[in-house]
Amino acid sequence: MEIFYRKAYPQRKDIKKYLDSTLFSLPLSQIKDSLIICDDDKIIGVNLCISTKAMINNEEYDIVWSYDTLVLPDYRTTDAGTFIAEFWYKRKDIFGAGLSEISEKMSKVMKSKFIAYATAYIKFNLTSRYLINLIRPIFPLQSVYEKEFPLTLSVQDTKFQKINSPEDFVVPESGYWNNGIIEFKRDIDFIAWRFFQSDSRYTVYQEIGGNVYFACRIIEWHNIPLLYIVDYRFDLA
What we know:
Blueprint lengths: L1 H7 L6 H7 L6 H4 L3 E5 L2 E15 L2 E13 L8 H10 L4 E2 L5 H9 L32 H5 L5 E4 L2 E6 L18 E3 L3 H8 L7 E5 L5 E9 L2 E10 L4
Parallel strand pairs: 3-4
Antiparallel strand pairs: 1-2, 2-3, 2-7, 5-6, 6-8, 8-9, 9-10
């Protein structure tokens, strides 16, 4: 699998870490629905999935989250991609996000149900010295990664504390924060796997005395460090 990913993403330097923290860290029962396409003994395409649960209009369902669909460039003129698409579009329990333009067109042809478009919100600190990096990369980003996240912070009238262990994390007993919407389960097992592995890139904050939380990490965009909110939950009521 690592050889396949290195061919699919030759520019990435963290392939082993990525696989160790995703696919290889999950029990077989949670990745059993993943699809792997081979040419003899060589992997040429994958559709990786995680089995989980979701609450849809107050009823819980077993669902599958699709997070990687890849075919090696040399095999994209073969039936590998078509086989993956036909296999998965027959199922009604698969969820995914982040479609490419081609994938979106194919999904519509295959009568997939679209829930909503995802919107990314970006807010710049206009006083940041790193904005000059848009024109010329002067300030190195290493110093940003070496800085510690604060132990506590305030957002309007809500105070948050940094959570260092899943044992300190508070979740509703059901694993859901809301009713009457589509919400993917966030229980302690998921939180521990997703955000608290030993080499995790994520920092998690939770409301002091409550269960509102958000998880974030630093990403680079055109030589500018951005704080990226990757997950959050709160009661909409």
